[in-house]
Amino acid sequence: MAHELFSRIADILSAPSEAQALIMHETLVIACHEGLKNTRHGFGNLSSQVESLCRQYNIAPQDIVAIQKMRRHSNSNAPILPEDVAYDCRALAIFVSAVVQEAIPSFLVGKIPAHGRITENIQIANYRYIRCIVREWNDSIIQVVVTNQDSSEELLTVDYMDTPEYVDFSYLRTLLREGMQLNLLDCTVTRKKVVPRLIVVEPDYLIDISTIANCFESYGHHPLLFIVNRLSPRTTNKHFVLGNFAGSALDDIINHSTGYDIKETFRSNFREKALDFATCPDFDAVAFKLEAERQVENMKEIVDDIFRTFDREKAILEPSFVCERLGIQGRVDLMTTDLKLLVEQKSGKNIFIERKFKNAHGSIHMEKHYVQLLLYYGILQYNFQLSPKNAHIQLMYSKYPLPDGLLEVEPLQTLIREAIRFRNQAVATEFWMAENGFQRVLPLLTPQTLNTEKQHDNFYNTYLLPPLTSTLLPLHQLNDLERAYFTRMMTFVIKEQLVGKVGAQEGVGNSSSDLWNMPLPEKKETGNIYTGLTITEKERSNSFNGYDTITLSVPQQGEDFLPNFRRGDMIYLYAYKKNEMPDVRKSILFKGSLQEIHSDSIVVHLNDGQQNPDLISGDYFAIEHAGSDIGGTSAIRSLYTFITSNEERRQLLLGQRTPRTDKTLTLSRSYHPDYDEIILKAKQAQDYFLLIGPPGTGKTSQALQFLVREQLAEKSKAQSSKSKAQSSILLLAYTNRAVDEICNMLTENELDYIRIGNEFSCDPKYSEHLLKEVIDDNATLNSIKSTLADTRIVVATTSTMNSNAALFNIKHFDLAIIDEASQILEPNIIGLLSTRHAERRAIERFVLIGDHKQLPAVVQQSDTEVVVEDETLRNIHLYSCANSLFERLILTERAAGRTDFIGTLHKQGRMHPAIADFANRKFYAKEQLECVPLAHQTEQALAYNEASEDATDDLLKAHRMIFIPSKPCRQLNISEKVNTEEARIITDLLRRLHRQLGNDFAPQKSVGVIVPYRNQIAMIRKEIEKLGIPELEEISIDTVERYQGSQRDIILYSFTIQSRYQLDFLTANTFYEDGQPIDRKLNVAITRARKQLILTGNEPTLRQNQIFAELIDYIKEKGGYYAEKA
């Protein structure tokens, strides 16, 4: 590793100027990853990681200044200045030397300056915004390292106690920690000390404004409310349903200045939110209609009043904003594009209006609503330098007519500071829990702790305390095992969410802070941004919506660009000026979904259509991924659901109760001799059944289909005797692609179903089964409930179902079958399996289908961080939080010696025996897969009938597994994630295969190419284009992760790597079974092939790994090794 890093530094010196910054940046990222990979502190952005390692290895102060300057240069979009390159390489070499604990080698010493540059006295240029890292502090000052601008001083002194009288930072004393990132805003300089007006802690950790506001309760705003509110189950009640309607109505009123029709809002809202209406336990249709009509009349009057003063043509609905300076993000209900008007709408009660008395601020607004509006104003102030004189911020209470229905409020700076204080405390608590464990916080989660205002009046005791106690009391009634499980998993989820926000290793995984921390060239390289887009069309998806369907022309994004976007992805669309770089922090963001993706055009469906199409305008547009807290919050709620579930289900899932079986049950009919035994065992299992489905064993097309048919048949017989209720089946999978496969199976077998989910994440072939499509325009609440009750199969992704758990209020499932179970982390599924309605289980029994030897769930934390050390938990086979529930239950069953609740599909109909043999030996020694056999599995020879051109063709015809060594081909101006030699080899093989197959060549069936890096896909595509064979341009070239679940007759695999450090990435999903390594990524690559597998790679690099060496030797032994003649 050390030699490779130093060699890269030498390469920078001789690389073309346009490539130097990218190589320098990549080298710095690799060095940081190497330095932090075995620690528990590997999160934070690159500047944070650099500072942490500089401290750890006691690098000299003047060198730290140079290293941070080098980091900034490498982050720049512009080439590094020639006079800076050598000094930056010197700084990088010092950093690498410290991290790898080796001296700078002689081959590099002569190429870099012996001494650092003598720096001039450079003063900080921008005191309005200083990004820095805490080095040390005492009761009055903080010593920080500035990271966002040049300074000749290593440390800057911040005075956080000698501040203006209305600014109080004393609370920071208990929050500060070494390495903490700060934003210092609106600073002044006195006596060589910086005095900020605002300090923001860990600004890369964005918190949604509405989340902050919801923590401002009348009894206090303790930072632990941030975690308590995420524990509390999301409830669908009449207030929630009315709030959704009122929001839609406001949009429609704005979009229809004349001719607004409330019936259209009723119709569209009812269709869009059908599940909420149907599952709302206290919904009263008559009362809802009356209140909705009253609020609509109020809003029409209020809107007319607003636009007597402001320009309606500039009114924009629900724009989103990201504010890194304040560490917040949010979506405003209504504003004008000239930033003169900001309106937040609320549909609920306001006790100050109702009772006609004023609050502590001398007004009649609710404090949490005021906080929300002020933070939106803060974003405009810091993102767009908005002057307070120009801002009109208003709260709309649509329950009340004018004048109470529209309150103009002042931008109260003290309350903004209080809101940022809460945000800082909440974020610091998240970091503290991630570092020290949730178990340290659990005892503090009591109403007494949260009631900082010491309220004990009748209102508190009657309305506020009971729900708070109901939420918190179960946390203190757990037994030792339950507490250990809950706290360990909560720590894992909190840290995973933290890493998802602030990042770990740049370029590996995604974090929301990549939006501003990742340099534009790296965004391009990873395919995470489209730039230079221009709008070609703006349309309404229907006559009542605003302009919500935007078509954009896509110019050339760069030779190697490959988009990392899929249909259905949530994105930000935003404009930027011709002479500027795209930056989400400087723009009004339109949130939406990708509806169509083509090489030359993109169609975006906006979440909120706009009444004036001219509002969506600009020189150029960019598209980037939109972050969301939904995943982390739903995992926390899932864990809470589990610990508050029925005791017998908790005991079952924690291995404290033996699963039950009913051996008297028999199959209603025979389905297939290879599956009947397993289907019967699954039927007899009364709690759970684990179905291991190795590659090609028909787990979806056959096993899942038979399980569904048997459940329907069994209940149909029961229905004809005593039982009147029909059984229902819930079918879930981790990805939308897998859900599409389930839908395909159901459709082909003419089994009716409803799919819950987003229309843009669903294959159009199955969109007619989406709930909103099943409901016609004249549907009633009763007809929707009847449709949900009568449709016996419901299909969804696990994340969609977690967000729509209210379905369990009206629908009970006799069986849930979860496909791809080995890819689902425990916290993301255990709540669904434990949900109850009233005192009844929502799901009676479940079947988990998966293969723990294929790719696991994606986790951003390191192996060290996810290890479980608590013996109580290891005793229930929870060894790593990164393992799936499926894997843990398999270990539980095997340890108990039980066979009634676990089954393996052994007959595979995909791989030819010559391919399956290696996978059987190395990965499926226990399972020992057998061929069905299908016709292609008994073929002796490959159907290549054209005359051979050379020895390569002879090899192709003679062997089903082939390895072709690739020669070293590193180029300084090309990423190490690209291998030009292997791209050439793959392309030549494709040409040969196309020639041999002739008319039998089918792009989506005959051949597929697998690579580890997306960059290599672009390189291979470029080489294919040179051939001028249109059919080859249609083949699938993708990463291993995206190929899981697919198959092709012939698979070509380009290992791509040429450096030792890249082996870590390639083998990251390896685990051990009975002492033998199981490389899950290699397993998936090999087992995609039906008839032939051809691999190419840099042999010396690959042989440094045991399994790769064994694979090459195996192929060589079988005669499939390509030996180039001298």
From TrEMBL:
Organism domain of life: Bacteria
Alphabetized PROSITE patterns for the sequence: HELICASE_ATP_BIND_1 (PS51192)
UniProt GO MF annotations: helicase activity
Helicase ATP-binding domain mapped to chain residues: 680-854
Name of the protein: AAA domain-containing protein
